[in-house]
Amino acid sequence: MGCCSGRCTLIFICTLQLVFGLERQIFDFLGYQWAPILANFLHFIIVILGLFGTIQYRPRYIIVYTVWAAVWVAWNVFIICFYLDVGGLSKDSEMLTFHISAHHSWWSEHGPGCVRREMPQAPIGVQPSENHSYITVMGCLLDYQYIEVMQSSTQILVALLGFVYACYVVSAITEEEDSFDFIGGFDPFPLYHVNEKPSHLLLKPMYLST
Length: 210
What we know:
Subcellular location: Cell membrane
Keywords: Cell membrane, Membrane, Transmembrane, Transmembrane helix
Order of helices and strands: HHHHEEH
Pfam family, one: NKAIN
Distance between the termini: 74 Å
Helix content: 40-55%
Structural class: mainly alpha
Number of strands: 2
Transmembrane segments: 37-55, 62-86, 156-174
Radius of gyration: 31 Å
Main location: membrane
Low-confidence stretches: 126-132, 182-194
Shape: elongated
């Protein structure tokens, strides 16, 4: 397969996934989103494995990447449903933090145009002895859930492209291996060979004429 083939395209897609995954991992770390952090870490491992398989012509590694691409699409669909409150899910729950903390997406307080204000005064109904600080966010140009949805949608799009090209690369590599085996590339004895001459000469009786 040449440089402009599906193999090189798949290498580019895997590289793009690593870049997008790194960007997402950084903001998930800042928001203490432990479930996405673990999923992103596993995503890195599988994408690197698929990248290695593509470069080294290892179809088994590419097949593992293909299966993971389908799983990754399903995970990002779940993230979209989570932030859009679909199917009984709620973006205000602590599911993504494993109920360890009450943190939410980093974009909820640091989105484009957001102004974050901390209010140390306790509102009405809260005991003064409780030392709580309340944070209000105003002026956001785009709600944080839509930013998360756009990120997941981008991941889905790239993963679907990776899935398609991975299937194509696996089929192309398999066809090349089959054709190479058909012409005798893996046979212990070549199809065409030159018969060796006997190492000794046959002695024939010679009659001398007198």
